[in-house]
Amino acid sequence: MASLRIAPALRAKAAPSSSRPLVSKRFGHDLIVQPSRNQAPKPVIRHGPPTGGRSSVSGHTVTVFGCTGFLGRYLVHKIAKAGAGSLCRTGTRMRRGICGLWEWDARNPEQIRECLRYSDMVYNLVGRDWETRNFNYHDANVASAQLIASIAADHGTPRLVHVSHLNAAPDSASTFYQSKYESERAVRDAFPEATIARPAGMYGAEDWYLNAMARYPILYRLNHGRTKVLPVHVLDVAEALSTMLEAPITSTASTFALPGPAVHTYNSMLSLVAGMSMHPPTTAPSVPKPVAKLFASVINRALWWPTVSPDEIERKYIDDFGAAALLAEGAEEKPAGWEVAVEAKRVGVDGEEVKSWKELDIEPDYIEEHAIKYLRRYRSPANFDQPVELGHFKPPKHYHVLP
């Protein structure tokens, strides 16, 4: 028994020692020079497995305001998976793929300052598409964004990404879209190097897009279902935002429009939902706009939880920007989203040219490729497992590093 016990120790002593140095190699692409507003440029060096992962370290410390929202949870997952540390709202700060949740108040500058104290990147995903008794559109979308941007600028945070909306415009009929444009203006005034992202309406696992169409199709029969939209997958938008983290030259002081790759109308979307859920097409009527707004005003005041607001009714009559041009006679289909001619018509809040998926080397997915994953639960048990044939194929993408 004694010989059996000491045998492993004898073998270990007899084994030759390895001559390989216990030092990991670093390469040029592991180094990123992060520009800083008030300090010298900061070097960011990656550690750990070259493929990333939560056991690696990207060198970034990121704060995500709005991390518990629909887009925020996917963004936090992607940047944490790449090895960034984050702080989220309920502010998240991440370090070595570890997330820390911090409580904050949109009207408390000290809490905001503490959330971004150690961060070299700040994402502002805070926004609200309906009003409450405590926060109107200006409070939720403009004042909070301005406060975050001004504190980040005073603190010397190198970079800030602000998420707006594709239809943000100062002359929009929707108060929500107007407030989104005002938030862009407020952010750029406080933080001139800020990156602005303008995604279209997003769909995903727990969205209020496909699920709302499946539950309340009458809302999407407004305007007789003719409103043109460019739905985009939430994972594609999260991928675009996470790519901006490693591409400071491409994204700093830039505005990105992030629409879906194909134009739909609400009627075509309702047909897609009916086909995927294997229910008959909706026979809901098209309610006149004044009647719908009156009903929304009454129910929005009568119930304390969010239902439908008059401004949401107004937005159901507004086409997504660029949809009409993409449907114009003779226009080519652009899988990457924007037509070149369409991009030239829209500029950023400071007059800069609007960028899109092409500059980020991302090709967004078609909604038909993912709709079944989110709509299958609306099927009956009799046809729950019926297969779905998809008609799109994305070729493999060549490896490319953005500057």
Automatic annotation (TrEMBL):
GO terms for cellular component: mitochondrion. It comes from the Eukaryota. Residues 62-248 form the NAD-dependent epimerase/dehydratase domain. InterPro entries: ComplexI_NDUFA9_subunit, Epimerase_deHydtase, NAD(P)-bd_dom_sf. Residues 38-57 are annotated as: Disordered. GO terms for molecular function: protein-containing complex binding. This is NAD-dependent epimerase/dehydratase domain-containing protein. It comes from Saitozyma podzolica.
